[in-house]
Amino acid sequence: MQRNTARNFIFTLFAFLLAFSVHAEKLPNVTILATGGTIAGSGATSTTTVGYTAATVGVQQLINAVPELSKIASVTGEQVFQIASESMTNEHWLTLGKRVNTLLAQPNVDGIVITHGTDTLEETAYFLNLVVKSRKPVVLVGAMRPGTALSADGPINLYNAVLIAGSQDAIGKGVLVALGDQIHGARDVTKTNTSTPDSFKTPELGMLGYVQGPKAFFYHATTRKHTVDTEFDISNLSVLPQIDIVYGYANMNPVALNAFIAAGAKGIIHAGTGDGSVAAKVKPDLVAARKNGTVIVRASRVGNGILARNGEANDDELDFVVADTLSPQKARILLMLGMTKTSNTKELQRMFYTY
Length: 355
Ligand code: DGL
Prior knowledge:
elongated; binds D-glutamic acid
């Protein structure tokens, strides 16, 4: 009799533990890669929202400041860099992109959050959007106020980013940007204000969704290729082609253009006025640069809209490429990666209509 009772108890206990383990919500494994910025910044007083020091707080301190993270993910942190993002370089991007790909290839990593300064956050996000070789979520997050400030936005932004990175719904959406309870796609998001918490927007093409309470809600998806569907591979790259941007304005001259070319630029993004217009004083030098082998991409300083091919310049005749709807700073990234594969302008134009 006693033996049966013991056997029944052990069976019942085993069945309960099995049921519990099956139904217990397994938390996603999310790695936080910290690079610096305001989200890791500190100011002299609680009302210092400008004039603080970026990149002073380490990744573990960022994680410790949001204990709620342990309820939504199993989080590990890595301090990849500790810099203000205006100082981000191609070398930083190659290091970061390779680390992301190495981590995402591991079955025990479900998603990645990258904490980053907001100045160049949109650029790093787009670079990763073109070189990450996984469908797993990669979410860039920053803050417009340092953690020492009243109503600091970093902790809630970090919480939301980890939530998204662990979300099944974020898989296959491309690299994402999460600030202010909003979810943006890497290709079209941009910083629109120097200091206010609502700075990140996707002005006309639209953000992808929201974070509300314990969930990420997606309403849109990009139509352009990204991550596993791109043709770019940085695994064997240690340097990227030098591409520079010349900014268009009234009374513009070709001095900057010629200086960039003399310094070895392989490609130039011409951030023209309006629909990528080229000033009469600059056009001869731009045409000569193309004839000498520099790839020229016409973009616009305006910020929204399609850059029409053969609109403000005869691109077919001059052998220029147009940036489609990419901002000048993102056109630079696509041209840089494109020129790791080709200098053929027809192929490069195809890329601008694909990514
Ligand atoms: N120095 C700027 C940067 O690291 C601070 C801006 C910020 O991170 O919000 O991008």
